[in-house]
Design brief:
Elements (H helix, E strand, L loop, with lengths): L14 H4 L6 E2 L11 H12 L10 H15 L8 E4 L2 H12 L5 E6 L3 H9 L3 E6 L1 E3 L2 E3 L2 H8 L4 E5 L11 H13 L3 E5 L20 H4 L2 E5 L13 E4 L3 H11 L8 H10 L3 H25 L4 E2 L7 E5 L9 H9 L1 E2 L1 E2 L10 E5 L4 H19 L10
Parallel strand pairs: 1-13, 3-4, 3-7, 7-8, 8-9
Antiparallel strand pairs: 2-10, 5-6, 9-10, 11-12, 12-15, 14-15
Helix pairs in contact: 2-10, 3-10, 4-5, 4-9, 11-13
The structure holds pyridoxal-5'-phosphate (PLP).
C-alpha cells in the first residue's frame, strides 16, 4: 500500500482527535489523517510572507484556475463570473435555500445523507421529504418511482454526489434522469459535490449542471478543494451558479450571514487545483484503504455488511445482523473505544448503521477493527465487553 505521511494529530487543534479521550480511536468526522501536499503548505506560507492580512477576495488568477480545472477534470466549460466564493459548502447550502425557497415548500432528498443536508430544511421552514436509497445487487441505487412521486410536490432538490455516507458516484444515466425530473417538475437543484475529486477505481465525476444549459440554469453546484486535498480546516469553497439572476439572488441572500472567505483558504485552494499528483496518489491510497477495510471486515466481523464506496473515504456499514444492543456507534464507542458516526445522523431510523472514516493509517484502521471485532464476539458469547467499559 502506498504510504502517505500521517503525523500524529493528538494534542493538535483537530476536532477528530480531540472530541474523545485518549483511549478512543477516532474514525468519525470527515477529514483524513494525511499531511497536505507540501505545495499547498508552501502556498499558505508564501501568502504569510506579506505581513498584512486584511480582508481579501478571490483573484482573477484563482477564478481562471477553477475554470481550467472544471474543463480539465469534468469537461465542464464554466465562466469566471459564475463563481461565488464561500467559507464552506454548508453555508452555501443555507444561502441557496434562503435565496430560492419560501417557508412551507418541500425539499426532496435521498437518505441516508450527511446530517447538515438532512437538517437544513427546518432552518428555512421547509418540509423535508426523504426518499430512501435502495440496494440493488451490490450497488446503491435511487428509488426512481418514489423520487418521481415525491418530486411532484417538491420545490427544491438537494443532490449529494459523490454521496455521503454511501459513497456512491452517480452515473451519467442516473444524473440525466435526475436532471430530467427537475426540469419536468420545475425543481430548483442544489448539488453538493464536495467529494468530487475523490472518485475511485477510475470513475469520472460528472457535475449534474454540466449536462445541459437547461439544468445549469436552475442549479447551484457546490465544490471545494477541502475534501480532496485534505484542507477542510482552511474553510474555503465555491458555488458555480450559471444563471445571472440566480447569482444576484444568492449574493443578496448572503448579506449579513455568509462573510468573505479566509485569504489563506483562497491561497490554498489556488495551489490545490494544481496538485494533481497528490490527488491521484490520494485516490489510490483511499481505494487501498477501502479494500483493506472490506477484507478485514469480512474476516473479523462477518455479519457486518457494506457496499464498497465508489468515491471518498467514508464507509456506510450495516451492523443489523450483529445484534448489538442499542445503536452501533454508541456500542463501539462505549465498549471498543472506537468513535464512528452514528447512523441516526444520516437517517433517523438507522441506528443499526454507522459511518466509518478510513482516511487514516492502515495501523489505525486495523487496531480499530480488531477492537470492534472483539467486542462483537464477546457480546455474542454473553461476556463482558473488554475495552474501557465505564
Ligand atoms: C457532503 C458534504 N457536504 C458538506 C460538508 C461540509 O463542508 P464545509 O466544511 O465546506 O461546510 C461535508 C463535510 O463533511 C460533506 O461531507
Amino acid at each position: 500500500m502506498s504510504e502517505f505521511a500521517a503525523p500524529p494529530r493528538r494534542g493538535t487543534d483537530s476536532n477528530k482527535w480531540n472530541r474523545y479521550s485518549e483511549d478512543v480511536i477516532p474514525l468519525w468526522v470527515a477529514d483524513m489523517d494525511y499531511a497536505a501536499d507540501p505545495e499547498i503548505v508552501d502556498a499558505v506560507r508564501k501568502r504569510l510572507e506579506h505581513p498584512v492580512l486584511g480582508y481579501g477576495s478571490a483573484t482573477d488568477g484563482l477564478r481562471l484556475k477553477l475554470v481550467e480545472a472544471m474543463q480539465r477534470d469534468h469537461d465542464w466549460r464554466i465562466e469566471p463570473e459564475w463563481l461565488i466564493f464561500l467559507p464552506g459548502v454548508e453555508p452555501g447550502v443555507g444561502m441557496a435555500l434562503h435565496a430560492f425557497t419560501t417557508p412551507g415548500q418541500s425539499l426532496l432528498q435521498e437518505v441516508p445523507v450527511y446530517k447538515p443536508l438532512r437538517a437544513c430544511a427546518k432552518n428555512w421552514g421547509l418540509t423535508h421529504t426523504a426518499v430512501p436509497q435502495i440496494i440493488h445487487g451490490c450497488r446503491w441505487e435511487s428509488d426512481t418511482d418514489s423520487l418521481e412521486k415525491v418530486a411532484r410536490e417538491a420545490s427544491i432538490h438537494i443532490l449529494c454526489n459523490p454521496q455521503n455516507p454511501t459513497g456512491r458516484v452517480y452515473t451519467r444515466a442516473e444524473l440525466e434522469a435526475r436532471a430530467e425530473l427537475c426540469l419536468r417538475e420545475d425543481l430548483m437543484l442544489i448539488s453538493d459535490e464536495i467529494h468530487c475529486g475523490l472518485t475511485l477505481d477510475g470513475r469520472a465525476h460528472i457535475p449534474i449542471a454540466s449536462l445541459s444549459p437547461e439544468i445549469a440554469a436552475r442549479s447551484v453546484t457546490l465544490m471545494a478543494a477541502s475534501k480532496t486535498w485534505n484542507i477542510a480546516g482552511l474553510k474555503a469553497a465555491f458555488a458555480i451558479v450559471p444563471d445571472a439572476t440566480m447569482r444576484d439572488r444568492m449574493m443578496a441572500a448572503k448579506l449579513g450571514m455568509v462573510d468573505s472567505v479566509n485569504i489563506l483558504g483562497l491561497a490554498a485552494m489556488e495551489a490545490a487545483y494544481g496538485c494533481m499528483e497528490w490527488r491521484d496518489a490520494a485516490r489510490k491510497r483511499i481505494a487501498d484503504m477501502r479494500d483493506l477495510l472490506i477484507h478485514d471486515l469480512a474476516r473479523k466481523i462477518p455479519h457486518a455488511r457494506m457496499i464498497p464506496a465508489e468515491g471518498s473515504f467514508l464507509a456506510w456499514i450495516d451492523f443489523t445482523d450483529c445484534d448489538l444492543p442499542g445503536h452501533a456507534a454508541a456500542f463501539f464507542l462505549e465498549y471498543a473505544r472506537v468513535a464512528l458516526s452514528c447512523g441516526t445522523e444520516f437517517d433517523e431510523a438507522l441506528g443499526t448503521h454507522a459511518r466509518l472514516n478510513y482516511g487514516c493509517t492502515a495501523q489505525t484502521l486495523s487496531a480499530a477493527l480488531g477492537r470492534m471485532a472483539e467486542t462483537v464476539e464477546r457480546t455474542k458469547l454473553g461476556g463482558d465487553p473488554p475495552f474501557g467499559a465505564p
